[in-house]
């Protein structure tokens, strides 16, 4: 490789890292500035999860329990308990089903670091973007 080729390669790598850093910064500002985690659970679900798919609703409930913190592990039993208290059409509109957690995991919105627990994955902000497109 010539010096010129090395310089071009280095420049491409720096640009890729800058893009990655900008993406990480936008995700961090997204969670703290755009989602109101201070809402009570019914208001939160009404604002963010109503009318969404099961996997999106599951992700929103993980986000609610974790308050947007991707390092916080949420017991799936707590999600199921809250979900089943909100089956009215004006809230979640259906009973909890474990397939929603699997579908959210496949989409990269949540992860399961250990059996019975879920946390937000780096891609969970896509669910918020889906909310914005639907409004």
If you consult CATH, what is the topology of the largest domain?
A: Arc Repressor Mutant, subunit A
User: What overall geometry do the principal axes of the alpha carbons give?
Assistant: elongated
Query: What number of domains?
Result: 2
Q: How much strand content do the residues show?
A: 5-15%
Give the CATH level 1 class of the largest domain: Mainly Alpha
Low-confidence stretches: none
Helical stretch tally: 6
Rg result: 18 Å
Q: Structural class of the helices, strands and pairings? A: mainly alpha
What CATH architecture of the largest domain would you give? Orthogonal Bundle
Mean pLDDT: 85
State the helical fraction.
55-70%
Key terms:
135 residues; mainly alpha; 6 helices; elongated; Arc Repressor Mutant, subunit A; three-stranded antiparallel sheet; 3 strands
What does this protein structure show overall?
- With 135 residues, the protein is mainly alpha-helical.
- The chain folds into two domains: 1-33; 37-134, Orthogonal Bundle (Arc Repressor Mutant, subunit A).
- The chain has six helices and three strands; from the N terminus they run αααβααββα.
- It has helices spanning 3-33, 41-48, 54-66, 76-84, 98-107, 125-134; strands at 74-75, 110-111, 117-120.
- The protein has a three-stranded antiparallel β-sheet.
- The longest helix is centred in the first third of the chain and has 31 residues, at 3-33.
- The mean pLDDT is 85.
How is this fold's topology laid out?
Layout: H1 3-33, H2 41-48, H3 54-66, E1 74-75, H4 76-84, H5 98-107, E2 110-111, E3 117-120, H6 125-134
Antiparallel strand pairs: 1-3, 2-3
Helix pairs in contact: 2-3, 3-5
